[in-house]
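Posted in: Structural Biology > Protein-Ligand Complexes

Title: Requesting predicted complex, fe (ii) ion in pocket

I'd be grateful if someone could produce the 3D structure tokens for the following input. Sequence and ligand are given below.
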Amino acid sequence: MKLALISDIHANLPALEAVLGAIDGDSAIAATYHLGDLVGYAPWPNETVALIRSRGIAGVAGNYDSTVGSRYKHCGCRYEDPLQEQLSHLSFEWTLRHASQSSASYLARLPFRMDVRPLGGHGPGPSLVLVHGTPTLNTVYWTEDRSDDFCLKMTTLAGMKRGDVIAFGHTHKPWYREIDGFHFVNTGSVGRPKDGDWRAGFILIDFDEERVAVHHERVEYDIARACDGIRKSDLPDDFAEYLRSAGRSMVSGG
Ligand SMILES: [Fe+2]
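-- Reply #1 --
Done. Output follows.
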């Protein structure tokens, strides 16, 4: 059973289209799930939500989704300096203004967590737990340098058993680790990577009775179209530069 996991699209429609094209090209992929942060930082929030909905892609609420959906005071993102904070607020306010009622209400209804049984719930096969940040909050950054103790504590909070997989996004930097038979998968980001590689990132996971195989995928997309869209909108132009540098420029957030 082969599944695709996509996360942190952040309203980057060209990146999402490229990823879905790659997924469509692999007939072995049985299902696709999203791990939240559909909107923010780019000018296609409604088109992104519409495409995810039209494709029937189920998923969970990222911090951006739940804060836009509930019209919270900010996006719940971390700021490393005052400029970053200012730009983040501009993005959040822009997204609040431009998300349609239908998009906002869809984002508000997304579940916090999903449990998938890739081999069926009738047998003792592995569970795949999908969250955006951690099992307790969608705003906490589960980075690669978190300790084994932190990761194992999350499995307890999530009610997982050995052999299970937990997948999450939010940091925009992909990684994978296995600790004591538990699998930890950070999906990276479709539309706003921060690991220095501008290409859209996503995950393929293969499940069988014996093992779990995790593959980090990258695909090129029409980044010029994405950057043009940002520049032609009244979003800050810095967000276009951020896409090209994939996190090496100073403006972060998300
Ligand atoms: Fe994000």
